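Subject: Sanity check before I submit

Could someone independently write out the structure tokens for this chain? I want to compare against mine line by line before I put it in a report. The sequence has 314 residues.
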Amino acid sequence: MFEELVGQQQAIDLLTSSVKQNRVAPAYLFVGADGVGRSLAAKCFIELLFSSSVKPEQLSILKNRIRQGNHPALFWVEPTYQYQGQRLTAAEAAEKGVKRKAPPVIRLEQIREITQFLSRPPLEAPRNVVVLEQAETMAESAANALLKTLEEPGQATLILIAPSPDAILPTLVSRCQKIPFYRLDYTALTQVLTTKGNAEILQHPEILSIAAGSPGNAILAYQQLQSINTELLQDVKKKPTSYRHALEIAKKIDKELDTEAQLWLIDYLQQFYWQQIHKPGIIEQLEKTRKNLLSYAQPRLVWECTFLSILQIR
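---
Independent answer below. Compare away.
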């Protein structure tokens, strides 16, 4: 079941043995960096849990139902935005073109839906399973409500996914079995990217540096790179040649990229400049740029100051 999950043998062993020994915990906490396979591991684990309820020839159907999130014994929760009376996931918000300043959160209403889901017996599976992605985004009221569910989960298992135990309430952590996930080394990272059909990413060392051992982050970073206008990208990868050139680049960035893309561009340029030019002064200047953008300074002015400063670095 875990063939797709590379470089996380400890997690695989812990989860597999819990099923084999019939000692599945009421709640798990999958902790680790974004993009290292926590969500994939949850899906593989659920496939293993539910496989006892189907015939061998039906395993592929079971896998598809779990991957598509339409199994009656599975409830998958993601952080949401509140928009015009609707709850939208990040993907749904992006599809609708909804721009939000505040990040999405797991809301109290979603925890109440979990309670309602767990109030009925499991269908077509030995137990109900609830997965909470980005559990660290729970509002305090939601976290307190979830605590009551964790105390009496019934015939169910809950999986919380978070970057670290410190990211969620200690009272929640104490009721979960912790499953650690680790960043991949270079060999494992290249294996995953190649297997997933993303071998072209390996030609961009700055993207691999941004990923920091996370295949998911590598793929997202490459997608972001591809979304940036090629001409603009070539401009920012060169030191400006004059004051006018510096101001023109700043204008292009402000016009073509939203704030999120500009912040990502800083990460990319820091890696690129360090690998190509190796001048600490440029890296420090870009870090100032990040702080200014996060302080809601006018982006065009911030970038103008950035490139005028880079122009003077020898």
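---
OP: Matches mine. For the report I'm noting this point. The CA atoms of residues 50 and 126 lie 7 Å apart.
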